[in-house]
Amino acid sequence: MKDVAKDTILVHAGRDPKNNHGIVNPPVYHCSTVLFPTLDALEDSDRRPFEVINYGRVGTPTTFAFEKAVAELEGGFGAVNTGSGLSAISIALSAVTKAGDHVLITDSAYGPTRRFANETLKGYGVEVEFFDPNIGAGIAALLRPNTCAVFLESPGSLTFEIQDVPAIAAAAKTVGAVVMIDNTWATPLFFRPFDHGVDLSIHAATKYMVGHADAMLGAIVCRDEALWTTVKKTATRFGVCAGPDDLFLGLRGLRSMAVRLKQHQESALILADWLAARPDITRVLHPARPDFPGHALWKRDFTGSSGLFSALLTPVPRAALAAFFDGLELFGIGYSWGGFESLILPARPAGVRTATRWDEPGHLLRFHAGLEHPDDLIRDLDAAFRRLNAAL
Fold it and tell me: What reaction does this catalyse (predicted)?
């Protein structure tokens, strides 16, 4: 589809009712074995292993529908599905690295990304180096002839630094490094990586794409055919694929993602402003707020914000912090985000940083604004602060 809004692409991409008996949604294909009518057909599938249905793990019509929809939405050549966001990150990094290579990763990256790099890539003989997420064009000083990949996450999902993606990508291209980004927070609706020099866009589709806290799913969108082939081969060799029901739930979630994100965005900003006015909050970390250090970059490159942000609570004893959390009624205490439900999590970035320091006093609280009415969420938080202050 050309010259239509992303909201429209979300509704129509990956569907073909005319060739599916007029049915709106594509069917869910549960498949391991695929049969071929002739020897010629079997051998032809071996010559084109990723373009035809020849084995359930490689792909089915359900697989291809999800991948087509995500690739069209992101504006890439093609997409590769995986069983989770972490598997998408792992496959993307594995696809472009080999022993002796050097990889640069933002210091604000998702914790499991760091662990995969430090414990698995290093074990394969890849040198891993973390860099200040605010480095911008200064990353040129860290690039080497053997730098094969630069991994970005903008904003970081705990401390929300916005990276200068175009500047970093331009520098990386001087040594031929593949630039990849975890684009889960913004989704293709609010940030278009390929317009800013990125080669691979990675999504924990578990989050906003699925949107209902009921499926694990990942996606890697590739700028061009050569990268897509490399990533697809890597996923196939590792035996990585998502189940058909989760793929269907991903397709279902895409249809309403634009509408949901508008509410996530609105509620998160309301909560962020309310928190910023409280005396027990020293700082709110939300890229769309004018007082955020990276706001100018966010405003330049992004078209919106999602429901995830953090706030710094003044130092309090653990008993008071427990009083805040333990009586919550609407906010769940959990590690995920992106679903319809609101969540809150205490975060500890200081223990994982290596290229930069996180020495902010107090407790970092990460919020995900769900689809509840923001007034009700504020009442829940107000009661939590009353419990906290009563425990001091």
Answer: L,L-cystathionine + H2O = L-homocysteine + pyruvate + NH4(+)
